[in-house]
Every structure is written in C-alpha cells, then in structure tokens.
Amino acid sequence: MEQAEYYYYNKQYSDAIEKYQICIKNDPLQKNVISLKIADCYEYIGNKLLDDYYLYNINENLEKSLDNFKQSLFYDTKKPFIKDKIATIYDILGDSYAVSLNYSKAVNSYKLSLDYSYSSTVNGKLEKVNKQTINKKDEKKETSKKKPQKSGKSKSKKPKRSQSK
After folding, report:
1. 43 and 87: one domain?
2. Where would I find the H helices in the chain?
3. Does 138 reside within a domain?
4. pTM of the prediction?
5. Treating both helix axes as pointing N-terminal to C-terminal, what angle do 59-75 and 80-99 enclose, rounded to 10 degrees?
6. Residues 6+ apart with CB under 8 A from 100
7. Residue 152 lies inside a defined structural domain of this protein
8. Which residues contact 7 (CB under 8 A, 6 or more apart)?
9. How far is CA 87 from the centre of its chain?
10. Number of Cβ within a 10 Å radius of residue 43
11. Tell me: the pLDDT tens digits for 41-80?
C-alpha cells in the first residue's frame, strides 16, 4: 500500500492504479477504500487528458479522457460530477459528428450524453440533428424520383450474316 500511496501523492496515477489493484487482491477487506483511490486516479488522468484536449485540440485525448472517466465511475458510482464530464464529452463528440454530417453518430453521441446527464441544450441539438436526418432522407427520395427511368426497350441489333465460302 505504501508504494501505491507514494505514486498517488507524486501524481503518477497509472502506476498508483496498478499498485492499488494489487492491494485489493492482497487485502480484500480494504476494497471499498482502495476503490475510491483508484477512482480518484482515473479521474485525475481523465481531467489531464481533457485539459490537453481543450488546450491543444488533440481529439484522441477526448476518447481517452472518456475511458478514464468511465473507469472512475466504475470504481466510485457516487460521483455525479463525473457523469457530467462524461455527458460533456459525448456532447462534444456529437457536435464533431454533426459538423462532419455523420448524423447517425451524432444522434448516438447526444443520446449517450443525455443518458449520463440531462441537458436541454443537448436535447435541442438532438432534435435538430434528427430533423436534418429526416430532411436528408427526404432529399434522397426526391432525387431518386427525378432520375429518368430507363425504358425496358433495348436497341435491336441486326443479326450477323454468315459468310459463305
């Protein structure tokens, strides 16, 4: 436990998680207390990755941050602010998908955001993307109706003459 605490207080959270997990195996009676420490480690890692995303716009950090916040929530389900952070990340992902016109992924991300924390803003975005999806489908139907249909008639070919010898 001393090594885990050393890593924790020196902000070496990945190493601390590893040591804390060993502690849980060696001392299952301390599982609840140690789980809270592990949750904190994942939260700190998630926060750092999220900060880096905001500062440097590194998209992969957004996904990694999301994974760490989910792990934090796994170890401590009573952290409502972690749910808010997860919801925010799904909201950001939804915006990114909507801008790139990937409406199905945008809808999915907005729905996941709402699963973690309700937001009228996200709900409005979801409604807007749903309307855009419907409009896109209607446009496809219209363009398929406007395409000229090929008639079943084919050009007749003259039969080849056989050459006589």
Report:
1. no
2. 2-9, 13-26, 31-56, 59-75, 80-99, 103-116, 120-146
3. no
4. 0.75
5. 150
6. none
7. no
8. 13, 15, 16, 19
9. 10
10. 22
11. 999 999 999 999 999 887 788 999 999 999 999 999 988 7
The Cα–Cα gap between 65 and 71 comes to 10
Q: Is residue 118 part of a domain?
A: yes
| Separation CA 71–CA 35 (nearest Å) | 11
- Condensed to tens digits (0 to 9), the pLDDT of residues 116-148 reads 988 888 888 888 888 877 766 656 666 666 655
Tokens 């749910």 correspond to what residue?
Answer: 83
Q: Distance of alpha carbon 126 from its chain centroid, rounded?
A: 15
Alpha-carbon gap, residue 42 to 67, rounded angstroms:
9
Rg for the chain (alpha carbons), in Å?
A: 28
Number of domains in the chain: 2
Domain that holds residue 89: 79-131
- The answer to whether position 144 is within a domain reads no
Judgement on whether residues 38 and 4 belong to the same structural domain of the protein: yes
Helix axes 103-116, 80-99, angle to 10 degrees: 170
